[in-house]
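Known limitations

Files may contain more than one protein. Parsers should not assume a single record per file. Below, a two-record file is shown to illustrate correct handling: read the sequence, read the token line, then continue until end of file.
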Amino acid sequence: MSMLHDETKPSITYKDAGVDIDAGNRLVRMIRASVESTRRPEVLTGIGGFGSLFAPDLSTCRNPVLVSTTDGVGTKLKLAFLMEKHDTVGIDLVAMSVNDLLVMGAQPLFFLDYFATGKLDTDIAATVISGIAEGCRQAGCALVGGETAEMPDFYGPNEYDLAGFAVGLVDREQVVTGELIRPGDVVLGLASSGPHSNGYSLIRRVVLGAGGPGLDAPFGDGTLGEALLTPTRIYVKPVLSLLKKVPVHGMVHITGGGFWDNIPRVLPDSCRVAIQHDAWRRPALFDLLQGLGNISDHEMLRTFNCGIGFILVVPREAVREAMEHLMACGETPFRLGEVEHREENGEPVVLR
């Protein structure tokens, strides 16, 4: 028993300081069903423990390699706050990590999230985490745990931040590194669902800044805000199935840095990618953003995916089979261009 507590004076609790432990416990109960819906056979524990146990089945790998990634949603969250719409950003969170795993040919195994806020609203948090669970189901991975941090005075009212962590598995002999890319290979692009989770600081500047149309402006079948909150497309299942059918020499997740910065990350020094500027249908949303901000073509392709969320580099003889398979899986593939020889000090990506 502490002798420092004076029972004659008012006592201060953690809840008085802004942290409600009971609310955190309620949240765990609220999300249990969503988390359980993502369960894989390898998961040995439920939520609520100090750690999560996962026993991977390595029988399909001669030389198993674990791949790990982490990412967030960025300032797209600001739009979710303004629109009070929290059911899709969890999908974004999962997508940004599992699509990165996919670039190396890895199957996502499990995912963990970090949800931080100033004052915990259990309904909002449960909605966000239900979106995370949906993203995990789309990717075929298990949501095995996470952290909910209530930090008074650290975030604005009704604001939160998200981070995600994914681990995947691939056989060392099947890791896709890009080293097999060679001149003559064909570059295929998969349609995005919108800006995904990149470029939203610029988006907010042109949409919400002086003279901007605002989130309530009509766009398509809804509002501009609704279009901008369309969740990031998860490419895991179609691409993993493709890897079993055709050789894929390289893959790229088009995130921050767009075409110019992401494609070179997988190219050998002797190769460049030549992309035809009219090879795909750029969605109207990107035309609107470019017009609102008078953004240059180069800046558009560095900031946004401009309608292409994922790229595959395949041998010329595999193009037809690859495109047919991807279409059968519900994707919209485009033949963007080809790989060419790159001169010393030449540009790795050229647009024609």
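...continuing to the second record:
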Amino acid sequence: MLLVAVLAATVGCDRVTKRIAVENLAGAADLTFLGGTLRVVYAENTGGFLSLGSDLPPRWRTGVFVGATGALLVAGLIGLVRARGNRLYLLGATLFLAGGVSNWIDRLAHGKVVDFLSVGVGPLRTGVFNVADVAILTGLAVVLLTEFQRPASGPRHVTDPA
């Protein structure tokens, strides 16, 4: 039940923040905070991560970002439902899928994703992103950390230095 709550809260938070961005940021001047470290800027992304694929023909974009991504999300959700074990891993996988689902909803409904945040110092900046992207990257980081913490399988051979 906790994972369902995390999924719903993540998707809900992303949907609400994107709605606020559309209503208040589209056509408005960029906002900067913390000496420009955080920028709030409206952007519409028809591609994937860092706008990759945005120059593809519309049918290809739909096939990749709606069709293929939707199939991968369904497979991921099935895998998550069947998964057992490490709770931290399950949390990370849930965050990853929740972000993917929320961005997929945008692509399905509008053919694009609304992004509105950018972080950086001076010329070193991230691309423009949204709450779903934060969930995806946080979930991926948690999954990878839990994978690296797993003990190696198989017998271990210890040699006696004496």
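Parsers that stop after the first record will miss the second one. For reference, the second record is described as follows. The chain has a mean pLDDT of 87.
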